[in-house]
Design brief:
By secondary structure, the chain is mainly β. It has helices spanning about 20-25, 30-35, 55-60, 70; strands spanning about 10, 50, 75, 105-110, 110-115, 120, 125, 130-135, 140-145, 155-160, 165-175, 180, 185-190, 200-205, 210.
Length: about 220
């Protein structure tokens, strides 16, 4: 099943380069630069915190098979970060983007604990294979690929004020990294790629690296 781990941070050491950090943590250099807002000539300084989406090895290790009929596609085991805590839903009157549902359908798995040592950091939505998956808000695509075990075809979009949204298990990706998208833009076609058995959309929202329950942010009517 899909388990999107929380982003880590890495403290830059003397002699580090952004390319070296990307290679060490097995993430794409371009994605790392975009996620951190670092532009050419990609200068970094000792002590600077670099946000990491999680190495491919870490993500793969957390993708232990779970029957989707029982738990849904995004239930995951204990975090490797002792400090990780789900963020509370933001004040709706604040500057957070107005998110919309990426797809409207039956909720297969909600946010939160799903048994001993497991929880879902997002929601899983039953979908029609090939249906449109839409961007929840304006943003910049920082990842579009399928290198991460269990996720299938995955899109990550960075939004204003430290927000990131994730869309997984797609059949087809319709956007590329560094592409700006508007809310409602069709970014993918729903599917069952990765470690799931039925067509569905796994959707997550994170604020400054912490998972936020989408049900407390998205419109009540879907």
């Amino acid at each position: 099943t899909l388990k999107l781990p929380p982003p880590n941070t890495y403290a830059v050491q003397a002699g580090d380069t952004l390319f070296g950090i990307a290679r060490r943590h097995r993430v794409q250099f371009r994605s790392l630069a975009l996620l951190n807002g670092i532009k050419e000539p990609y200068e970094i300084a000792p002590g600077q915190a670099i946000l990491l989406p999680g190495s491919a090895r870490d993500w793969e290790a957390k993708a232990a098979p779970v029957r989707t009929a029982d738990l849904g596609a995004a239930d995951r085991g204990p975090s490797t970060l002792a400090t990780e805590r789900p963020a509370r839903a933001p004040d709706p009157t604040g500057p957070a983007p107005r998110f919309v549902w990426p797809y409207v359908g039956e909720i297969l798995s909600t946010f939160g604990p799903k048994g001993p040592g497991r929880r879902n950091d997002g929601v899983n939505i039953a979908a029609t294979d090939g249906a449109d998956v839409r961007a929840a808000a304006d943003g910049l695509v920082v990842y579009a690929g399928e290198e991460l075990a269990g996720y299938g075809k995955l899109v990550l979009i960075k939004h204003a004020d430290g927000w990131v949204s994730a869309y997984a298990h797609n059949r087809e990706l319709l956007v590329k990294e560094e592409q700006a998208v508007k809310q409602g833009h069709v970014i993918a076609k729903a599917g069952s790629t990765g470690a799931v058995e039925t067509a569905q959309v796994h959707f997550e929202l994170r604020k400054s690296g912490r998972p936020v329950d989408p049900m407390g942010v998205l419109p009540k009517s879907g």
